[in-house]
Amino acid sequence: MSVAFRRLRRLAALCLAGSGIAFAAEPPDSPPPPPAPIPVQAFAELPAIEMLRMSPDGRGAAMVQNVEGKSYVVVSGFGNKPKIVLRTDNDKYIVSSLRWAGNKRLLIGAFFPDHRRGVATGETRLIAIDPDGSNLKADLASALQNGPFFERQRHMPQYQDRIVGALRDEPETVLIAYDAQSPGQPDVYRLDARTGRSRLLQRNLGGIRHWMADPQGVVRLGSGSTRTTLRVMVKPPESQGRPSEWAALATYDGTDPTEARRQALTPLGFDADPRFLYALAPVDGRNALVRIDLQDPAFPRQTLLADARFDIRGDLIRDPATQRVVGIEYRTDVPRLLYWDDAARQRQDALDRALPKRGNRIVSDDETGQRSIVLSVQGSRPPKYYTMDWASGTLGLISDTHPALEKQPLATPKRVALRSRDGLQLEGYLTLPPAREAKAEMAGAPSAHSLPTIMLPHGGPASINTGSYDYWAQFFASRGWAVLQINFRGSIGYGQDFREAGRRRWGLEMQDDLADGLRWLVEQGIADPQRACIVGGSYGGYAALMGAVKDPTLYRCAISFAGPSDLRDLLSHSQNYMGYELGAEAEIGTWWGDREKLRQTSPALRAAEIRVPVLLVHGANDLIVPVEQSRDMAEALKKANRTDARYVELPLGDHRLSREEDRVRVLTEMEQFLRKNLE
Questions:
Q1: Does this model's pTM top 0.85?
Q2: Pairing state between β 94-100 and 645-650
Q3: 33, 82, 377, 401: which could join 359 in a potential S-S bond, CB 3.0 to 4.6 Å?
């Protein structure tokens, strides 16, 4: 038996063992060991365990376990040995989702890259299998392709695993969105997860791309867009003679900030009583949690939670037995929980007492709520999974998500605040090397000084740094480098105005925010002004290249992973996909009208101005930013005689570095490049 397989069986066997054993407190942290490089592999490894799902009867759990770059769908419990029901080497097929359909059926989403008429696409399929590995249906939704003559598909759906609801009284029946008739406009079908039999349940209303069902399995909400017009449609329950008919809940132009401020709506879910819908909507320019009464024809919104500085972002918390919404798990500056149900709050209090000084949240329950799977986080370290048996009050450790890092000294990001050159308030996170951080604390010094520094802009750009575990930032800090992550304008989480300030400003003020952040860190005496590099992935990779163009004396080198380099070419590519006007065009600019600005902010067209070493890395299977963006940048640098530029292409790599082998390669290449240029 191989070492990898023994490790897999050992991890799986732990899954439910803890549900009958009282939890022992973790030993106190030992003093940090002498500084020594943590192996690259420890940071690059895929999570040892993820996607844990408790079975409805609470007798077992399904999960994805990753061992030496391969992924296994494992079922543990049910009185038997852990069973591997599916495996993939992640070279092409990646497990993207996992859920139970009753106690005797599993549904597994599989993602893979493909092409349609010469255009790169991401495809998904739905796999059904019993927990013992039998009765496999490798393409469950294929039955939807063979309906009656007039219902037969006109289009092969790209996404075939979009489950939008379930029926509690028919546990092996799910509701699935499937666009067999019109691309990008799915209808909803009832699908038997065992037989594959299906029936049309709800036709598309026109332009609907996403559906939502209530806890009883009634399809009640659809959202989508036609060009730039966004629409949310809702079907209220019957009430006082009022029929249950589809009505417009919100309609607005997604490119008009004024309209979006009044009408924007992000549905989160229905209460057990489908009269009430919970959603995120702007209140005083920031997203707040609202509850909408659908039985009132005016659809009034009641604000339940708002913050004066931050957008509310989060997910509803439900009572597993009744499906009532009892609270929300949300984030402002830090993760938070809000309960408006006393029993749910008491359960959380009990959990927090059992796992003190940690952030704890329930990620899966059985159908009665007697057993739960808990994700627990301590600061910025990788999380752990536990089981909780509420009847006995026992807690058991399932697994660390990154066991190789469990005893290693990791850094603690600190929130920082500064102002940009035009007076905009900016925030971000500073991560200092653990050894220097510990030394500074022991000496009572306010901070470390004169460190080689990595400016690490996030991707998106509609994203945000939160200070949670980030394996790139932790890897760089472990090598002795300070890491600064600024939430530049255009980042989410700080309100509509802050987000809008970044639209169509790539390479302009967005770029200046990063430069201002690094200069601020130099002024604080932390960053060595002669040893700073800019590193990023996706939009962050673009910002790294543009930083080398725009601020050549500020950065000593630049690394771009999967970064755009020619914005007009990127827009041309994006026109092959739906949502272009609300996506790439709204974010970057118009191909013709903004052509001169796009030329000035395209690093590949200004490669001759770059004066620092550049490392480019890109996956050939990238479906978000085409690999040609880095190929063209590499060619432009070659023509500019930049002999210190290096291009690395990952033959099977994707945009998210889903393969462990690619993660190891990228971290190794970056470390070698940065050591050469920073030390």
A1: yes
A2: unpaired
A3: 377
